[in-house]
């Protein structure tokens, strides 16, 4: 999906929820939309400073918190990075395949994995509220090299 189309969809989601999609939030969203795989907050900050020279770490973290709250991004916990979710118009299970060589991240939405996790959790009397599963390995491009 084209970046402008994603931004328009994000604006619509914000309007529907009564949230403000500020200029800074839009710029951070745009930077994430241009990024393949995950990117760290400080790398995003450096990119944001090109157009917002006074941006501080708090600027980027506030924007990332908002984008995460709206469901627009996923945090990759194991690498402390962030990536845009192209399917933010609905709640979905998330599994991330992370290449340890090139950093590429592939987002899966397997309901089979999600159901299995929920079923196993229920056996322990546990209710899963949200889940992001991360798997590290090597992508097909890196394997072919």
TrEMBL record:
Transcription regulation found in the keyword field: yes
Record Pfam families: FUR
Keyword Iron among UniProt keywords: yes
GO CC term (a single one): cytosol
Family of the protein in this entry: Belongs to the Fur family.
Transmembrane segments annotated in the record for this chain: none
Organism per entry: Pseudoalteromonas tunicata D2
Gene Ontology terms, MF aspect: DNA-binding transcription factor activity; transcription cis-regulatory region binding; zinc ion binding
Co-factor remark: Binds 1 zinc ion per subunit.
Residues given in the record as Zn(2+) binding sites: 99, 102, 139, 142
Any coiled-coil regions, as ranges: none
The protein's name in its UniProt record: Ferric uptake regulation protein
Top-rank taxon, per record: Bacteria
